Amino acid sequence: MRASIVCVGESMTCCETASVPMRSVGPLRFVGPELAEEVFLPLATYETPLWASVRRGAQVLSSAGGLYVKVLHEGMTRSVLCEAERAEELVPILAQLDALRPEMEAVVAQTGRFVHLQGLHYECVGNLLFLRWEMTTGEAAGHNMTTKAAEALLTWLLARFPALQYVSISGNLCVDKKVSAINGILKRGKAVVAEALIPSDLCQKILKTTPVKMTALNIKKNLVGSLLSGGVRSANAHFANMLLAIYLATGQDAANIVEGSQGFTYLETRPEGLYFSINLPNIIVGTIGNGKNLPFVEKNLQALGCSPSQGIPGGSARRLAAIVAGAVACGELSLLAAQTCPGALVAAHMRLERGVKERS
């Protein structure tokens, strides 16, 4: 199967499609409050070994009893930038912002039925004022909702405080599609944790490695290596690979893998085997909005149980975020295992991408 990404020309009358190979792999067994069932994961990618890697991870996690997934936080963000003549003029404004929260909530509510203000963070640099609003956006990812609401808030703010002047509808404190520390700390979209305890015999049988090797590699590669490279609140092997594949398959804004790929892989060797977990603070997905009406996207969301029409308890976008985390967990586990085995990664890519048979 191929995912067809529609490209509309400037005339808005003719369309072309860019085809990306797509497969559903699994099943992956989920456990926990978000969902407790087996799910096949749709992945659209040119990196064909990813299908086999995610499938192997899903086999291990399912055989271990399933992957526990929990959405810890939800909230899309947009920031604006305004300025005064001097910082002295900002001080009395900053003192009032928290007390004005009810008024801000009312302004946001007027911009749409499904958007609600739930948080405010601000930074002051000299005479510059950066405001970062966090909002819930229903089943939508929320890019347009939050921008529309932020524009209304900015208009209200400038009218209330004449000392302020407009600079930009986006102040880069959001932070949209860029690497940042603040998203890792305050979160953006949906923050998700996933974990499993994998018996040692499964590590040996399917992953061809041991909990001790896996834990050591995670410390030396993911943690120390990321520290040396200057990673920003991030220590993982390749979250972005799985994020891109499932984002394309489910009609998401693929550029959000930039902040989405932030996160941590954490492993421990325990008497029972390998404790494996991932934390993703910035999963940005929706089940309605631009791109969701494409036939292959509708089909995939329906198969995942993530179509808004299916009336999912807790919301279809929340369920999709949990499934996205599952796909990331499968690929991350499988790749780390392969990298503990000399030659395994190269051999797999040569065999699956170039058709080169392994020498006996």
Topology overview:
Elements: E1 2-8, E2 15-31, E3 38-44, H1 49-63, E4 67-83, H2 87-97, H3 101-109, E5 116-125, E6 128-136, H4 143-160, E7 165-168, H5 181-186, E8 189-199, H6 200-207, H7 211-229, H8 239-249, H9 257-260, E9 264-270, E10 273-283, H10 295-304, H11 316-339, H12 344-354
Helix pairs in contact: 1-6, 1-11, 3-4, 8-11
CATH topology of the largest domain: 3-hydroxy-3-methylglutaryl-coenzyme A Reductase, Chain A, domain 2
Q: What portion of the residues fall into strands of 2 or more residues? A: 25-35%
- Main β-sheet description: 10 strands, mixed
Top-tier CATH class of the largest domain: Alpha Beta
Count of helices? 12
Principal-axes geometry comes out as globular
CATH superfamily of the largest domain: 3-hydroxy-3-methylglutaryl-coenzyme A Reductase, Chain A, domain 2
Question: How many angstroms separate the termini?
Answer: 33 Å
**What is the H/E order?**
EEEHEHHEEHEHEHHHHEEHHH
Task: Look at the structure and give the mean pLDDT.
Answer: 93
Give the helix proportion (percent range): 40-55%
How many discrete domains? Answer: 2
Structural class: alpha+beta
